[in-house]
Amino acid sequence: MADEEQEEKSASEEGEEEEETALEEDNGLPFPRARVVSIMRGEIGKAKQLRSEVKEAVNIWLGNLLKKISREMGNTQYGSVGISDFQRATKPYDLIEDIIKDEERLLVSLEKIKADSDHVIREMRRFIAVLRSKEREEE
Asked: Which CB contacts under 8 angstroms, 24+ apart, belong to 79-85?
């Protein structure tokens, strides 16, 4: 019984290695090119031409991103990777999206801070001017 389990494990490990090798042989791209192009086409539209170097670059970039996320998920303290590990690993990328969405709010806040600081500068200059004029009067 134990021998059968070991054979099944080694057979599944060999299958995983074959899948990884098959993926690597696909022009060295981590994902099927047709699927990546299909997703891009859905967002860009058919009116624009996609150059092959862009298709390849996006595919490689997605593969590298997946590697980074997977490495982060692998830092779990548990024996299995769960959805909380996925959420932890992708959180920085989700935060970037939130910051982009909040761009207008952030710009308005910065403009207000700038206006407030300009007001403080004017008040300080006026105050110093009053002090200097009083100092001259006393002399």
From this structure: none
The amino acid sitting at 99 is I
How is residue 39 written in tokens?
A: 């997703």
Selection from 77, 28, 80, 24 nearest residue 56 by Cα: 28
Is the Cβ–Cβ distance between 117 and 97 less than 8 Å? no
- Give how far Cα 1 sits from Cα of 4, 12, 13, 100, Å: 5, 17, 19, 57
- pLDDT at position 22 over 50: no
Distances (CA, A) of 114 to 13, 76, 110, 123: 61, 44, 6, 14
CA–CA distance from 60 to each of 25, 27, 46, 81, 91 (Å)? 14, 11, 22, 24, 21
pTM: 0.55
Tens of pLDDT, residues 38-93: 999 999 998 999 999 999 999 999 999 999 999 999 998 888 999 999 999 999 98
